[in-house]
Amino acid sequence: MTCEDRVKKLPAYLEGELPPRESEEFKNHLASCETCRKTLEDLKAADRLVRNLGEVEPPPWLKQQIMTRVREVHGQNESLWKKFFFPLHIKIPVQAFAVIVVTVLAIYIYRLDEPQIRMRGFPLPPTPAYEVKKEQAVPETRPSRLKTATQSKDVAAPQPGRTEYEDAYTSLAPSEKVEDTMPTELKRDAREALAETEPALAEKFQAPPSEESVLHSAVKEKRAEGSLPQAIAGAGSGICEQDVCTAEEREGGGAAGFAIAKGTAAKDMPPSLDLLLTVKDVASAGVELDKYLATAKARHTEINVHGKQQTFATEVRLHFVASVLEKLNQIGLLADHVQPEFGKEVQWVIIKITIMPAVNQNP
Amino acid sequence: MLNVAYRMIGDYDEACDCVQEAFLSAYRGIGNFRREARFSTWLYAIVVNQAKNSLRQMKSRRGHESSTDMHSRHGEAPCGECSAPPFTESLADQWERKELGAKVQTCIVGLEHDFREVLVLKDIQDLSYEEIRDALHIPVGTVKSRLFRARLALKDCLAKVWGDLK
């Protein structure tokens, strides 16, 4: 190997990249060759010079200029995004947008919680006049319909267009007149009204299916067929002689009489009592009444707010009815009402209380 | 990064522009960064590529100028902003140091580009062979081969312009 060849390998020798044997050979050669030794020294000196080169200091404006240009590039990208999504360049300040969102949210929450706020008796802003009229129209009709449905004596009179069989159906024993002496249409109206105002109670009234509905469907069917007198003539039991028998009763020879079925229905359905209470402050009266009903262990209490009126529908035990009435007299002015005589078998009584403001009653 | 760009290009202003472009390229292509290598290595690769582009543009701009003019321009010291000397150093020493740096820089710029980038990254930036491999996407053996040839060429150049290197 000539010195020229060895010089080419000197950097590798300096870096320790040569194999040990070759490196040893280089070492021996350098000890004897002046030219190669000088080249090696020059290489080391050149390496020192390169490594001793100072660091180039950036100008003070370089960093700022780089950041400015980066922001420009970022702005170009952002403007493309904005052009795509906001082509009309409508600018809404963030504050205005936040105010709109908060307002809409507040109105929504207020609407959502309004009935609960009214029930708790918190002061509320006066309702607009047109809303008062609209809301008052509803409770005036609903309680009257319910009252008509429950106070059967007022509506038990024969109506034109009714058959004698239906009239016979309505003229049952007084103990059974709580509901069953009502005309069919009125009862249906009452149930519909009850279903609107008191779904829980309506469900209770509906189940189990009343025999009376079966009866009336049978009447309608027979009336359509024109064979109603024969069907009645075929009735077996004494109870069925007074009334129209159902198909099952006719077939079974009157094993299960309608009156018995009616009595079962009446047992399932507690008698009801409609009351009208006039107070100065409906909200506070409602809260007080709610508390009292809780202490009286009332069940199925439902409260509806109709404008300035509140309607309570609840079930209390018979021996609590008197105390409830007394409490109502303490809270406000209780209107005259018809208190039916409850039988001994009655345990629960449905009490429906409409609380009205005194101002509206006596403007 | 500016150090690499300046050692590669040899012109301070061009090196500053090169660094700006390199950072912008990095910002635009940040999504292409894979964590196979270090972020600094990725940046070095961008700066080296940008330096290549800058040199190409400079050549096209100064096509009418002679190569000696280019070399003399490259040999200029960076306005005293590089290698700031310590206050204890005398003016003569400062001048000698500045001149020495300019000569070394002239020789570095005079190297072939492939040799230059390896020499700058290894001997000036002190990167490892593996980092240079990742930055330049060449095998380690090639890195070593280029580096040894670059050192020899630099030694020859310095011996030519300086005389005795001792």
Which terms would index this structure?
heterodimer, A: 363 residues, alpha+beta, 5-stranded mixed β-sheet, 17 helices, 5 strands, 61% helix, 10% strand, B: 166 residues, mainly alpha, 8 helices, 72% helix
| Helical segment count of chain A | 17
Coarse morphology of chain A = rod-shaped
Average pLDDT of chain B: 78
Distance between the termini of chain A: 128 Å
Instruction: Estimate the helix proportion of chain B, in percent.
Output: over 70%
Average pLDDT metric of chain A = 67
**How can the largest sheet of chain A be summarized?**
5 strands, mixed
Topology:
The complex is a heterodimer of chains A (363) and B (166).
Chain A: H1 3-15, H2 20-32, H3 34-51, H4 60-85, H5 94-120, H6 129-150, H7 164-170, H8 184-197, H9 199-206, H10 211-225, H11 228-233, H12 238-242, H13 247-251, H14 258-268, E1 272-279, H15 282-295, E2 299-306, E3 309-317, H16 318-331, E4 333-334, E5 348-357, H17 358-361
Parallel strand pairs in A: 1-5
Antiparallel strand pairs in A: 1-4, 2-3, 3-5
Chain B: H1 2-9, H2 12-28, H3 39-61, H4 67-74, H5 91-110, H6 113-124, H7 129-136, H8 140-162
Protein model, in words:
- The complex is a heterodimer of chains A (363) and B (166).
- Chain A is of the alpha+beta class.
- Chain A is built from 17 helices and 5 strands.
- Chain A has a 5-stranded mixed β-sheet with strand order 2-3-5-1-4, sandwiched between helices.
- Chain A is rod-shaped, with a radius of gyration of 48 Å.
- The model of chain A is unreliable at 137-182, 207-219 and 226-266 (pLDDT under 50).
- The longest helix of chain B has 23 residues, at 39-61.
- Chain B has helices spanning 2-9, 12-28, 39-61, 67-74, 91-110, 113-124, 129-136, 140-162.
- The two termini of chain B are 31 Å apart.
- Chain B is globular.
- The chains are: A alpha+beta (363), B mainly alpha (166).
